[in-house]
Amino acid sequence: MTTCNRRSTVHPNDPSLRSFIPVDPSSDFPIQNLPYGVFSANGLAPRVGVAIGAYVLDLWALAQECRIDVVEPGVFAEPSLNAFMALGPDVWSKTRARISELLRHDNPELRDNTQLRDRALVPMTDARLHLPFQVAGYTDFYSSKEHATNVGVMFRGKDNALQPNWLHMPIGYNGRASTVVVSGTKVRRPRGQLKPPTADVPSFSPCKRLDFELEMGVVVGQPSQMGEMLTEAQAEAMIFGFVLLNDWSARDIQQWEYVPLGPFQAKAFATSIGPWVVTREALEPFRVHGPEQDPKPLPYLQQRNAQNYDLELDVALRAPGTSAEQTLCRTNFKYMYWSSVQQLMHHASSGCAMNVGDLLGSGTISGPGKDQRGSLLEISWNGTEPVELAGGIKRSFLEDGDSLVMRGWCQGDGYRVGFGAVEGTITPAE
Ligand code: CA
Asked: Is residue 130 annotated as a catalytic residue, yes or no?
């Protein structure tokens, strides 16, 4: 194991830290972030990397030179983060501190080693980003009160907008891990059974009401035992990080199939996630309390700490044949009624075991404002108020060739801890 000149101990979240790699203040990837991903470049096999400015830092290259002495080096040669995540929060934290140290402007160790720099720093434009972890299970929640209320008002009227259980637990369903894909993967318009209210019998055809759902995904990095419940502290410690998530939804398929067991094919055809997993530790400075919960949750769901994050979110559409992105929605993760920690506590409460690599969708993130709605279903009010964009473009739902781009970041003083983007383009059903 290597011995090197250790820098003075500064927490990797310290806003005063600087890297020898130039990072623009508008970049998502300053030294205070250091999100993990899986990438390949120069014909080499996929391995684990960290984003810094416009580069990917190759952790396998560094580990082979014994530069990251806090971890079994082989975990960084894997094509997923699962083996690294399985090592637990203490290793996550020490590894992040070591990477921060290596990238500091006042540390010559990597800065002045031209050979190692050439090997370990890959321009992002040369890197192909892969699905960052092997998704063990995918669960999708429904935890924005504004979203649940909007949808409830649309389908059941104002007086019955929230179902009686909604304020008592995070509502969720078990989704499909098999079709979770990384940003950039094309999404084929799904086919399914449709039965609009005007039709007597269902038909099987391409979805006509294709939608996005703006969500954040929790990446579970530690397992829980079957039969065991989780405390707030245990649930929090199991969260490795967060990713941007687009839970593509076929509204017309959903409308016909969802009674009585909830969504099935309407959500199973694709879920896109961002390539960068921002660690829970990097988001620490941006913790905020969520909305007040009334009625008070049952004891097993109560939380003492601020478990929400002040995380700005932005959704844009790029119509076919245009290069300009047009904003559809700007909102914030902080509005979520149920926190990710409460979702995890609820998920395990029956005795359900959680696994390394489980992905928990937050549920569509809508805010209180009209311009803060996280799905086209809400933006176009179920197609009755199509959104009008520049260039005469009108949308009720997504059309073939549309690209949808989601971005997210926490704004610090002079820097931002960002997630990059999750993007997907719709291709025709046949
Ligand atoms: Ca969803």
From this structure: no
